[in-house]
Amino acid sequence: MSTVQTVTGPVDSADLGNVLVHEHIFVLGEEHRENYQFDWDEDEKVADAVRDLNELKGLGIDTIFDPTVLGLGRYIPRIQRIAAQTELNIVVATGLYTYNDIPFQFHYTGPGLLFDCPEPLVTLFVRDLTEGIADTGVRAAFLKCAIEEPGLTPGVERAMRAVGQASVQTGAPITVHTNPHTQSGLVAQRVLQEEGVDLRKVVIGHSGDCTDIDYLMKLADAGSILGMDRFGLDVLLPFEDRINTIVTLAERGYADRMALAHDASCFIDWFDPGAKRQAVPKWNFRHISEDVLPALRERGVTDQQITTMLVDVPRAYFE
């Protein structure tokens, strides 16, 4: 057992219950909102999020891991308002989300740069994990970085190595946004391992977007957790293919290397809400409880294997 920091305080890892390992509450460009979203109603958006999360709790999910970090609009005071109105545990992250470049706040500052100093990203990540985020008193519990189709750009590599170094210093686990079609999970494993990271503490996010069993087994055999975490995004991979992949891996003994989620959100400003509902009607927090778990059971995945993916794997991630 170990202590896991949540928005409302520490909990024992044994008390996390059923966990969805990759969900967002808000994905929101705050600078864009302040300048262009003049119809924004903060109270309404918070109430909608509370409703969604309480509904999720009613479906038997006890905890979500929210990897909304710098680059995705992390704003903890809003999340604190929401957490105070739900019994669902919300575990937040630190890190940097970029597919290409480092933000200009760090572009000229760091080892060997114009303003030569120790990596400031590591300093900030460690502070979020050990002291708290801003002045909220909320501590991050895990780290997040990304590697997408552009691959290991200089900015992506710098962010990833900073995440790895912060993980080694603090013991915090990591989730990585990856693109399985470019097999970028293998690149992430290599870079993080070079920084001394224990790959058993790494979720290779969005692994469920592909059906390449050999690739997924290679990631799992190296120790990492496969994030089968985009249920509802059928435009990226159809529902049946996602189910088939989990069934095949479970049959081969990999239930203890998989974790489930939707990568959904209460609000995201990347898409028009109406168009989003029409394009991906199942991309919501209810989908796993209402559709995915019954489909897995129908295909022979046992209740014990489901418990492993929902309870045991997320718990071990922190232990």
TrEMBL record:
Binding site for Zn(2+) 2: 144, 177, 206
Source species, domain of life: Bacteria
Cofactor: a divalent metal cation
Record-listed Zn(2+) 1 binding positions: 22, 24, 144, 263
Co-factor note (free text): Binds 2 divalent metal cations per subunit.
SUPFAM superfamilies: Metallo-dependent hydrolases (SSF51556)
Protein keywords: Hydrolase, Metal-binding
PROSITE patterns xref list: PHOSPHOTRIESTERASE_2
Official protein name in the record: Phosphotriesterase
Provenance organism: Gordonia crocea
